[in-house]
Each structure stands twice: as structure tokens, then as C-alpha cells.
Design goal:
By secondary structure, the chain is α+β, with helices and mostly antiparallel strands. The protein folds into two domains: 120 residues, no CATH class; 153 residues, 3-Layer(aba) Sandwich (Aminopeptidase). The chain contains ten helices and eleven strands. The structure holds coenzyme A. The site of coenzyme A (COA) has 23 residues, from β9, α9 and α10.
């Protein structure tokens, strides 16, 4: 695999699998951003189709990442970053982070420090409590993005989320036709998306983390912040994942200085851990600063 990864990005394109071709046909090629970003997102999709049964890897809709540290971690992260613009290793022990960071930096990658937050049953309890006590603002209704959602609405959600600085995932992921999961949107009375949240099973079924779901993609339009919308959508996503997809853990990566997101995670039962969400970017390929906020 590393030999393949070491070819130049212009010379190497992963062949499209039949599964990807079907997904693309069905959802009119719903990838977002500029052509460069779309190319990277498609490449991540193709890569995931090749690796989705390999327990070393995981996928949260944006990129293929390492499910946990292991042999050749740095080499694999470098290879993944060169293909996709960025890579992440979940559950990386914080005590070893400095060495890993300098190894990645010595390969020319930029490392963004993210805390690795996780919760288990406390997430369900906190979510049920939120849903019991929260009164939805009168003009708001909640929608699940699925196969029947119009492409126009999906792209409005993406635009809203990207304006909040949250990187979107392809339509086939948002619609729940790929990894098992849910993507929820709050709409105002004019039908505009004003907040969203998503959660997806991100590890292969043979992984020791198979029951941990990625939770996040939270974004609330600036004029609707502080009204509990992220809490409500986040809570609904957790309950759905617990009840429908048998998720028993919830993980996310949050930039160390994103205090609002961390406060929200804490409220939802996702707490800081002894792991780091070790993430790196190849700035020659990826336009943004970070895969997650
Ligand atoms: C983070 C974000 C989604 C919160 O959305 P929101 O709808 O305003 O959040 P809520 O009103 O549901 O707030 C829920 C809890 O989050 C925390 N919180 C939200 N905004 C906060 C802020 N500015 N400072 C501190 N805590 C904050 C609080 O604990 C709050 O509960 P409380 O009001 O009972 O104290 C929103 O600020 C946003 O879109 N930020 C930019 C994108 C981002 O960082 N997303 C997270 C990526 S995973």
C-alpha cells in the first residue's frame, strides 16, 4: 500500500469501484467545494471503498483515517495525507503525542492539535434529559437528510455549515446511504437551514472500536446561536445512534481552543480523554487549516 501511496498525486488515481459509481449516479455527484476539494473528497470515497473492511482504518465522511495507532503509523498518516490532504489517528495516547507530532512535522505536514473527546452511557442520559426539558423555538422544525431530500436543500445545508467553518461531507454520507448514521437539520419557517449535526458509525464492524460513533459536524447559523439548537440536534443524533445503530460510545475531535464546542460536548457527556485526536494536513494539497474545528 505504501508503494502505491508514494506515487505522485497527478500520476495516481484510485479506480472508481462499482459501489462508488452507483452512489455518484444516484446522488448526482454530490460533492462540495472547489474542484480541488471535490477531487480530494472523491478520492477519500474511493479509498474508503477499498479499505472499509480493514480494521486499521475508519471513515467519518470526510477522510479515511487510522482507527487507532499501530505499526507504521507515521508512514500511513503521511501517505493518507498526501492522498487526501489530511489524515487523523484516533485514540492516540497524549503522553506520546509530542514525538508523533515532530515525526509528522519532519515529513513536511502541518499538525493541528485536537482533543479527543469521548462519552458512553452519559451521552445517552444527557441527551434524553435535554430532549425532555428543551422547548423548540416556535419557528423551528427538524429534518433528517435522507434519500428523498432535494439536492438543493442539501447544498443549502452545506453552505450554512461551511459558513460556520465546519467542513461538509459528501451527499451520500449526509443522506445515510453510506456509513450507518444520521444527519439532522433545523429549519426556520422560511425553510432555511439554521443548524445541523451528524453522527455516523465510523469503524469497521471487526474493529475493537466498532461501537463508537463519530459525533459532531455541529454548526449553528450565527444569528441563531445560544438558542439550544446544537444541543437539541446533537441530543437527537445521540439517541438515534444508540437506539437504531447500537452505538455505545461517541467520539469527536475538537480544536483545543474551540471553547464553545467543548462546552457543548461536555454538556452532551463527551469528555476530554487521555487520547489525542492526532491530525495533520498536507498544505500543498489541502486548502483549509484543519479537517475539523
Ligand atoms: C458550537 C456551536 C455549534 C454551538 O451552537 P449553538 O446552537 O449556539 O449551541 P447551543 O445554544 O445548543 O448551546 C449548547 C451549549 O453549548 C455551550 N455553548 C454554546 N455556545 C457557547 C459559547 N459561545 N461559549 C461557551 N459555551 C457555549 C454551552 O454549554 C451551551 O449550553 P448552555 O447555553 O446551557 O450553557 C456554534 O457556536 C457554532 O456553529 N460554532 C462554529 C462551528 C463549530 O465550532 N462547530 C463545532 C464543530 S464540532
Amino acid at each position: 500500500m505504501l508503494a502505491l501511496f508514494s506515487k505522485s498525486r497527478d500520476a495516481f488515481e484510485i479506480p472508481r469501484s462499482e459501489e462508488v459509481a452507483t452512489i455518484e449516479q444516484k446522488f448526482q455527484n454530490e460533492y462540495f467545494g472547489d474542484p480541488e476539494r471535490i477531487l480530494l473528497a472523491k478520492r477519500s470515497t474511493n479509498l474508503w471503498m477499498l479499505l472499509k473492511d480493514d480494521r486499521r482504518f475508519a471513515f467519518q465522511g470526510r477522510i479515511v483515517l487510522l482507527s487507532e495507532p499501530g505499526e507504521d503509523m507515521v508512514e500511513i498518516m503521511v501517505a493518507l495525507a498526501k492522498l487526501q490532504g489530511g489524515s487523523v489517528c484516533n485514540y492516540f495516547p497524549k503522553i506520546h503525542a509530542q514525538k508523533a507530532i515532530s515525526d509528522l512535522e519532519s515529513q513536511g505536514l502541518g499538525v493541528v492539535e485536537h482533543d479527543h473527546l469521548r462519552g458512553t452511557k452519559a451521552c445517552l442520559d444527557a441527551s434524553l434529559k435535554t430532549l425532555e426539558t428543551f422547548a423548540l423555538p416556535e419557528d423551528i422544525s427538524i429534518t433528517v437528510i435522507d434519500e428523498t431530500t432535494s439536492p438543493q436543500f442539501v447544498s443549502e445545508v452545506v453552505e450554512m455549515s461551511e459558513k460556520c467553518g465546519v467542513m461538509s461531507v459528501p451527499g451520500w454520507v449526509m443522506r445515510g446511504t453510506g456509513p450507518k448514521g444520521v444527519f439532522l437539520v433545523a429549519q426556520n419557517s422560511a425553510g432555511e437551514p439554521v443548524a445541523c449535526a451528524g453522527s455516523f458509525m465510523c469503524h469497521p464492524e471487526n474493529s475493537s472500536h466498532a461501537k463508537d460513533a463519530f459525533w459532531g459536524m455541529l454548526a449553528t447559523r450565527s444569528d441563531r446561536r445560544g438558542q439550544g439548537l446544537a444541543c437539541l440536534l446533537g441530543a437527537k443524533a445521540i439517541v438515534h445512534m444508540w437506539e437504531v445503530h447500537d452505538a455505545r460510545g461517541f467520539i469527536t475531535g475538537v480544536s483545543a481552543d474551540n471553547l464553545s464546542s467543548k462546552a457543548l460536548c461536555k454538556k452532551m457527556g463527551l469528555l476530554n480523554s487521555d487520547w489525542q485526536y492526532l491530525s495533520c494536513i498536507d498544505h500543498t494539497i489541502f486548502g483549509g487549516d484543519s479537517i475539523t474545528k
